[in-house]
Sequence to fold (118 residues):
Amino acid sequence: MIPLLKVAPPVYRWRIRFKIYRWYEVLREVDQKRRDAQPGSDFQEEIASIKNLERELAEVSVPLSYMEEFYNLRLHVAFVLKLLNEHEQSFSNDGESGSGDSGSGDSDSDDSGLRIAA
Fold:
């Protein structure tokens, strides 16, 4: 019986952390899809998945001793959602604005689209 009592605290910590890390796995998959995506990719499914994750996290209760990890997870969820929304907006704006080249010929453009004075 005594050995069982020694094992209980580590098992409890593992269970709580596993719950948090399980959500990080979903977050990592979505972020990986975003990083590997081709220009113009649609992320509506991933955005819906992240919003669903946010709703799920809003209803979860974790012990106070694990709130730091839990709030870090919520911050990371918000961060990835922001990146996805920015990606969606940048491609929708690129399609509407055209090339944006003034054709003046007095500057060069690097791969990032920034204009460099010659």
